[in-house]
Specification:
Elements lengths: L2 H12 L3 H22 L3 H18 L10 H20 L18 H9 L3 H11 L4 H12 L4 H7 L4 H27 L1
Helix pairs in contact: 1-2, 2-3, 2-4, 3-4, 4-8, 5-9, 6-9, 7-9, 8-9
């Protein structure tokens, strides 16, 4: 979408124009639902959060500032916040992996990155299973970076953080995923 088209869309949304709202849903709906569904994994809950996202977007469109972020990044921020808030309110069980044995200096970052580059079906299933063990905020980071192809800068905007913090958290989360996946192989051996 060009800057001119985005400005026209935002202007229409500010006027509460139904066609602009429809265009917003047509243009960004699938992307936003994908982001929400990767964080809020229950289909019915994801649909509820998705609706909440666009209610918030339509009622707060005047606060959008194109100098701070693109429209899609601004929408992602709202989707992220609504998803995390929903999960906090509903407190689904999360399994945490202990970081106590983590020697941050000796972790091989390349190994954890390699996991995401594998393409065979078993590797994909293993990674999907491992993602279930992450807390929601870490899962959101991984999905934004790997599934939504968002930059560190955009993720920092979405999560209201700074780029260096996002990069550090992303690195720790990849390492945690590596340890989780490694523990799966120990389960099979034992």
């Amino acid at each position: 979408m060009t800057d001119k088209e985005t400005n026209e869309l935002v202007s229409g949304l500010c006027r509460k124009d139904r066609q602009a709202q429809w265009r917003m849903l047509q243009t960004y709906g699938e992307m936003i639902f994908g982001q929400v569904a990767r964080i809020v994994t229950c289909q019915e809950d994801a649909e509820e959060v998705y609706q909440d996202v666009f209610v918030k977007v339509f009622s707060n469109i005047r606060s959008y500032d194109s100098s701070k972020a693109s429209l899609s990044t601004w929408l992602s921020r709202i989707a992220y916040n609504e998803s995390i808030n929903f999960l906090r309110r509903n407190k689904p069980p999360v399994i945490y992996v202990e970081d106590s044995d983590l020697d941050r200096d000796s972790i091989m970052e390349e190994q954890s990155v390699m996991i995401f580059q594998q393409q065979d079906e078993q590797a994909v299933q293993t990674v999907e299973r491992a993602l279930d063990y992450l807390p929601h905020d870490e899962l959101a980071l991984i999905t934004m970076f790997y599934f939504d192809d968002m930059s560190i800068k955009d993720i920092a905007f979405v999560t209201d953080s700074i780029s260096s913090t996002v990069a550090s958290r992303l690195s720790r989360t990849r390492n945690k995923l590596y340890r989780i996946i490694k523990s799966f192989s120990h389960e099979r051996e034992g």
